[in-house]
Amino acid sequence: MRNLLIYCYLLVSSLANVIQLTTKNFDSVVSNPDGNPTLVKFYATWCGHCKTLAPIYEEIAQHYSESDVQIAEIDCESNRPICSQFKIKGFPTMKLFLGNNDSDDAENVVDFKSSRSKANLIEFIDSNLEVSIPVVESSPSKIVQISELDFDEIKSQDKDLYVVFTANWCQHCLKLHPDWEDLAKVFENDSNIIIGEVETTSVPHKSLLSRYNIKSFPTILGFLQNGDILEYNFKERDLSTLVKWVNSNSGLFRDIDGGISSEAGLIPEIDKLLGEIQAYQDDHGLLHDLVNKVEKIEGSEYYKKLINKIINGEHQTYIPGEIDRLNKILKNKLNQSQLDNIHKRLNVLKKFSSIIF
Ligand SMILES: *[C@@H]1O[C@H](CO)[C@@H](O)[C@H](O)[C@H]1NC(C)=O
Ligand SMILES: *[C@@H]1O[C@H](CO)[C@@H](O)[C@H](O)[C@H]1NC(C)=O
Ligand SMILES: *[C@@H]1O[C@H](CO)[C@@H](O)[C@H](O)[C@H]1NC(C)=O
């Protein structure tokens, strides 16, 4: 029964209206007299990313089947002159021809540059044209769609890769999907994290399932930069549990809004020692002992600096001044790692003000 369903699915999608372009018909389709715009996918039959894209591309064709937008593709191996005319260097390349008569005019062609998801493609087309197709408002997905053809390449990027393996007939997968989407948003600015999906109904996947012994859907695996492979085994698959799992595996402190938690930067072991010396903060011997202990703890440089401020009697001006200064810096435009660093420092500074003063 399942095979039959997949077969029907393939049959239906192969009926979608992707226009096949050749050297002969290219100009008449792309520079058509009606001025209709055309999205063209330049591809090669041997290219793995093209195979991954194929089912998505057919969905795009279906999406625009009732509109003036033409969805087309051209095989660059059998139509080299066209592909060299447009200086195609990699596959797949997608260009939107805006539908004026002169397809050679660079003004009439826009290159697609973002990641190749259905939502991104629709956003790209709609934002370049004034098409009015009733679509559900949705921001582009941050989930990286993966197949067995590009899995190893994506995994080898020195990032922590978290992948959910799904199938379109699986109800638990459907239920998980919004949370997985939110998870990808939470970590969208963490350049070391990839949140991906292998949607096994529409992409090649068999070797992956056997390699990782995947027998049910959804299965969630984490592939860490250090080579560890982790399986997500929690009963709950809600956003908060997923975020905590990624945080603890990847040493991050995201909250479910993508902000940083108030625990980031703190080292509980040192906080405990600080609590113990609270009553003796004028005892320099004790403070020096503390510095010696703290030095042995990994990542404790900032703590050490602040304890030295206490020893030098500067902390009562330094700590509030530093909190003010960092809060001012936060008003600037900063990238994620700068933001994180400042928030971590602020958390430590606040811990000191609560314990020491
Ligand atoms: C394209 O060319 C045809 C024939 O020359 C002309 O009738 C039509 O208006 C042109 N369309 C656009 C969008 O310029
Ligand atoms: C990621 O960065 C962009 C640009 O600064 C920002 O608009 C977006 O809200 C950030 N996302 C998260 C989850 O913080
Ligand atoms: C963030 O900005 C700093 C300073 O401009 C830069 O050194 C750092 O590489 C940037 N980090 C990322 C992840 O872009």
Automatic annotation (TrEMBL):
Residues 10-130, 133-275 form the Thioredoxin domain. GO terms for biological process: protein folding. The keyword Chloroplast does not apply. Pfam families: ERp29 (PF07749), Thioredoxin (PF00085). It catalyses: Catalyzes the rearrangement of -S-S- bonds in proteins. Residues 1-16 form the signal peptide. SUPFAM superfamilies: ERP29 C domain-like, Thioredoxin-like. It is an enzyme of class 5 (isomerase). GO terms for cellular component: endoplasmic reticulum. Keywords: Disulfide bond, Isomerase, Redox-active center, Signal. GO terms for molecular function: protein disulfide isomerase activity. Its EC number is 5.3.4.1. PROSITE patterns: THIOREDOXIN_1, THIOREDOXIN_2. PANTHER family: PROTEIN DISULFIDE-ISOMERASE C17H9.14C (PTHR45672:SF11), PROTEIN DISULFIDE-ISOMERASE C17H9.14C-RELATED (PTHR45672). Belongs to the protein disulfide isomerase family. This is protein disulfide-isomerase. It comes from Wickerhamomyces mucosus.
